[in-house]
Structures are given as structure tokens and as C-alpha cells.
Design goal:
This protein is α+β, with helices and mostly antiparallel strands. The chain has six helices and eleven strands. A five-stranded antiparallel sheet has the order 5-6-7-10-11. Strands 1-4 form a two-stranded parallel sheet. A two-stranded antiparallel ribbon has the order 2-3. The chain is globular, with a radius of gyration of 18 Å.
């Protein structure tokens, strides 16, 4: 796994405008389709999610891509002909958190600009095929819980955004810069969707404090973890929505 690609994935939420901490590298190839206020000059396109939420644009559609090349984020040791790729597990985690942030669908055509649909060895499928399949599996999960996405709000965390101090960071601090947690709350109900992602590739327990829910712990995996939590009679009912991390819709 190329170290520059690791940094790029750990910067996903910052690039999406959610972050409370600016990573060493945060450029990557997704952009929001929402009409947004102009971000500060020092943070072009990086705080778009918080800005879109500020103007009541709760949901988005994205181009999504797991290849980082010389035109986006090529470090000094990058091989331009080959580019840099996320590993499949963190690509899945990236997508789960994107959906949890309010994305209702992602568009990918594999290798943007260079894709060639040609015969290939089934034992060595091209990376664009893996990319497409993982997008499909992530989307399948969130089609099952789309009502929860549409009828909920992404909760702001306790800290301001790293690039726009006028906006909150829409993630909850964990004490680990590459362990990212997002929370959505259902409108008018004591029900939450909570997601944790080990963006740096190190799986660990994440502990956060959620308004009206209190302290909450869940396992942050490179593939991401999504829980539905509901308070009923003072008791928490927790459902893991992605026991099969890479094929999460199988649990529905």
C-alpha cells in the first residue's frame, strides 16, 4: 500500500468538509454536486459538506474513485504510469462514511479518462472492476437504510472545522486522528446511525460521547463499521448493519 494513498484516504472526511483536524494530505478525487457558498480561499472545496449543511442541503451525489494519480495527489515517489490506489478494505470504509455523511449515490466509471473495457485474466482482474463491485456492495447496504439517511440529520461534533472555523466539524473526536466517527440522528426519534472508520488501517475501539445518547463505543475497522442504535424504555438496542464488512447487504 503506497503511503501517499494511505494519507489521502485518511484525509477523506476533511476533503468532504467534515473534519476537525487537517491531515498531512487531504486531496482526493471526489466532489460534491450541491450548490455551495464559496469556501475560504485557503480551503477550496475542502469544507463543502459543512457549507452544504449550512444551507440546508442535507444530501449529495458524488463522483467516487479510488485511484490517485499525478493530476490529483502524486507524491515525489509516485510512479505516474501506475498511480496510487487504496486497498479494497479502506475503499469500502471510505464509501460507508461517505454515505453516512449524506451521499445517496456514488458514480464511478472505474479508471476515469483511461478506462479500456478489454478482455482480462480472471485471476488478475483490473482494479477498476474491483472498484465498481465495492461501490455496488456499499450502495446495496444503504438502499436498505435509505429512509434512515433521508429522515435524519448529521450531527455536528464538539469542535470547529479545521479549514472553516465558522462551521462545525461533523465528526466526533476519538483521540486518534485516523479513526473517524460520524453520527446521524433520526428526526423526532431516539435513534441513531453511528459509523466508525479506521482510515489509517489500524483497527481499534472508538469511544465517543453523543448528545442524548451518552458514551458509546464501537469497533473502527478499515472496512468501516455501521451501527443502528435505538433507545427504548431507557435501554439501548444496537444493530450491527455490516457484520459482513465487505458485503454488508447480506445482513439485511
Amino acid at each position: 500500500m503506497n503511503s501517499a494513498a494511505i494519507l489521502a484516504l485518511s484525509g477523506l472526511l476533511a476533503a468532504a468538509g467534515l473534519s476537525g483536524a487537517e491531515p498531512a494530505a487531504a486531496r482526493q478525487g471526489t466532489t460534491s454536486t450541491s450548490p455551495l457558498p464559496r469556501p475560504p480561499a485557503h480551503a477550496p472545496a475542502r469544507n463543502t459538506r459543512s457549507c452544504s449543511l449550512a444551507v440546508a442541503c442535507a444530501h449529495t451525489g458524488h463522483w467516487v474513485h479510488w485511484r490517485l494519480d499525478v493530476f490529483t495527489m502524486c507524491a515525489s515517489k509516485c510512479a505516474p504510469a501506475q498511480g496510487m490506489y487504496s486497498d479494497a478494505e479502506r475503499w469500502m470504509g471510505y464509501l460507508k462514511m461517505s454515505y453516512l455523511a449524506g451521499m445517496l449515490g456514488g458514480i464511478t466509471t472505474g479508471e476515469f479518462g483511461v478506462l479500456r473495457y478489454e478482455p482480462f485474466d480472471p485471476a488478475q482482474p483490473p482494479r477498476w472492476l474491483d472498484q465498481m463491485l465495492i461501490v455496488a456492495h456499499a450502495h446495496a447496504l444503504f438502499t436498505w437504510i435509505e429512509a434512515d439517511l433521508r429522515n435524519s440529520q448529521l450531527l455536528p461534533g464538539p469542535n470547529p472545522h479545521a479549514w472553516n472555523k465558522e462551521q462545525p466539524a461533523y465528526e466526533f473526536p476519538t483521540g486518534h486522528k485516523d479513526t473517524r466517527v460520524l453520527v446521524r440522528r433520526a428526526n423526532g426519534a431516539s435513534r441513531w446511525l453511528i459509523g466508525a472508520w479506521a482510515a489509517g488501517g489500524i483497527e481499534r475501539e472508538a469511544s465517543i460521547k453523543v448528545p442524548d445518547l451518552g458514551d458509546y463505543r464501537l469497533r473502527a475497522r478499515p472496512t468501516g463499521t455501521i451501527h443502528r442504535v435505538e433507545l427504548q424504555g431507557g435501554k439501548r438496542n444496537v444493530t450491527s448493519l455490516d457484520v459482513n464488512a465487505m458485503k454488508p447487504s447480506l445482513n439485511q
